[in-house]
Amino acid sequence: MSAAALTIDGLGVDFSGFKAVDGVSIVIEEGEMRCLLGANGAGKTTLMDLISGKTQSTNGRIFLYDTNITNWPEYQIARHGVGRKFQIPSVFKELSVRRNLEIASFPSPKVLSNLTIGLAKKSQYRVDEVLEIIGLERDARRLAGSLSHGQTQWLELGLLITQNPRVLLLDEPTAGMTESETFRTAEIIKSLKGQHTIVVVEHDMGFVREVAERITVMHLGQVLAEGNIREIENNEKVRQAYLGSKGIS
């Protein structure tokens, strides 16, 4: 049996009496692909904020493997192996695609020093590998600012992959994408299965159906249901609270 990569135990946060996340408990196994579903305001992004350290919890605990990372500083959680991609991509637009990935591969977080030193061959090979994974080999010399929306999203995903986090948190990775870009994003994320533990917040049901191994549905800050795609679409509570009578389509 695989180890639990992420254990969320009774987690909650109270914003002046409003419980955005309320007693959430989830266990995500190593190498698992978990999708978080729920209507706007269900608490999905806030849960990601709590895991990554952007928001401090008021109760409960978070374990990364056997380490209690509850309310650690955001940078410390990142260095311990949790990488997060936000809805709005953040890349160095004035630098090339390849240079973005090279900077991400440096052990030192000091960007200015990174620009003036060389990259070891092993890291160069890793950059080449990531360029292939995200499908931007032919665009390696292009300025990041000239990429399409979908390509920019893939580059930011590549920045995370280059750092080789144990857990990847992806917040709506297909937001604003065309149908073909969404399909390509699903292919990229599926290629990472088993290499990373991945938690995805997503509204595109076609994408969820394509990538999800297990789904957690949130409602009003709590876990409403968990299961595979078939179990979730046949769950009456989920249909009433989120999916509607037509289910997942």
TrEMBL record:
Function: Involved in beta-(1-->2)glucan export. Transmembrane domains (TMD) form a pore in the inner membrane and the ATP-binding domain (NBD) is responsible for energy generation.
Keyword Thylakoid: no
UniProt-listed InterPro entries: AAA+_ATPase (IPR003593), ABC_AA/LPS_Transport (IPR051120), ABC_transporter-like_ATP-bd (IPR003439), ABC_transptr_urea_ATP-bd_UrtD (IPR017781), P-loop_NTPase (IPR027417)
GO CC annotation: plasma membrane
Xref: SUPFAM superfamilies: P-loop containing nucleoside triphosphate hydrolases
Annotated GO MF terms: ATP binding; ATP hydrolysis activity
PROSITE patterns assigned to the protein according to its UniProt record, in alphabetical order: ABC_TRANSPORTER_2 (PS50893)
Record keyword Nucleotide-binding present: yes
Coiled-coil intervals: none
Sequence ranges assigned to domain ABC transporter in this UniProt record: 6-245
Entry protein name: Urea transport system ATP-binding protein
Keywords attached to this entry: ATP-binding, Nucleotide-binding, Transport
Superkingdom of this protein's organism: Bacteria
